Fold this sequence. Notes:
Blueprint: H1 2-20, E1 33-38, E2 50-59, E3 69-78, E4 82-87, E5 105-111, E6 114-115, E7 120-122, H2 124-127, E8 148-149, E9 152-153, E10 170-174, E11 180-183, H3 188-191
Amino acid sequence: xxxxxxxxxxxxxxxxxxxxxxxxxxxxxxxxxxxxxxxxxxxxxxxxxxxxxxxxxxxxxxxxxxxxxxxxxxxxxxxxxxxxxxxxxxxxxxxxxxxxxxxxxxxxxxxxxxxxxxxxxxxxxxxxxxxxxxxxxxxxxxxxxxxxxxxxxxxxxxxxxxxxxxxxxxxxxxxxxxxxxxxxxxxxxxxx
Length: 192
């Protein structure tokens, strides 16, 4: 009896949530990136615990160059070496991010004013937030607003065939509304 009530309540909750939450296609892509790191004391090698000031910089080269973007996080909590920040949570977010010239993006972490020795190359997860503005799509499985195609209005599109031609008939054309134009005459070239 308790299991049945639990299952019923779970199903009702799932249905209620599905109506309350917009479809995934309507949720904007977050313009923030979760970042987690591990810090150790430079002399003892022991994991740090406390608070640190961090700065994050993006470059389009592995070393040297000018930053494409930067953001500071003051008083970041570090527990047994582990810290977590949300990049893009500053007042400007990623709005001032310059376009990389090399096609690559490298992250530099600065701890207390001192850059860590190696930059980290960012891969597809970081770039995924560009999905919200897919500027160049080679393929699209669905679209919410497809009233035109290459400037042609959808009223000019060819309609799908609404029915097949009957037995011993062949298709000679399709009308604009999708109605088939069929012919029952035998093709003279086939019988010769």
